[in-house]
Amino acid sequence: MKILILNGPNLNLLGKREPGVYGSRGFDDYFDELRQRYPSLELEYYQSNHEGALIDKLHEVGFSFDGVVFNAGAYTHTSVALQDAIRAIKTPVVEVHISNVHQREEFRHKSMISCACKGVICGFGLDSYRLAIEALLAS
Ligand code: DQA
User: 65 C-alpha vs ligand 1 centroid, how far in Å?
Assistant: First the structure.
């Protein structure tokens, strides 16, 4: 089973960025742990700060992979283009957020992509990614 973890803008700074909100662990370290935990899965990771690059990646994997775990960062709240890209592909996408966006500023309560995703997991810290993998495995 092939699963892509796709991270959007500013998530390259995990571990350094607002540790009170996003924790102090870098994503590379967490991704190594995920790979060890799921040795039978083909897990891939891609991060970009650019909306178009995220769309290109969804198109690239969206007809061959079994799932995408997608944290679109701030583009979650703004991007019709990402919603369209998720709708355009066959691979199921699970939206994830590290923080509980519903406990934060009002502008974070609205997601432009949730309606195109299979489901949403938010608020469990980095464990949100593992929970999304479990959701894909169970579906
Ligand atoms: C985030 C929440 C977004 O509102 C924010 O813009 C991010 C990270 C999260 O994982 O909690 O960049 O997606």
Answer: 24
State which of 13, 27, 76, 110 you would mutate to test the pocket of ligand 1, scoring each by most atoms of that ligand within 8 A of its C-beta: 76
> What's the gap in Å between 16 CA and the centre of ligand 1?
14
Is-contact 74 10, C-beta < 8 A? yes
Ligand 1 centroid distance, CA of 88 (Å): 23
Cα separation, 91 vs 3, in Å, equals 9
pLDDT digits (tens, 9 = 90+) for 14-67: 999 999 999 999 999 999 999 999 999 999 999 999 999 999 999 999 999 999
Active site residues: 22, 97
* pLDDT at position 18: 95
The structural domains of the chain, ordered by start, are 2-138 (3.40.50.9100)
Span 62-92, pLDDT tens digits: 999 999 999 999 999 999 999 999 999 999 9
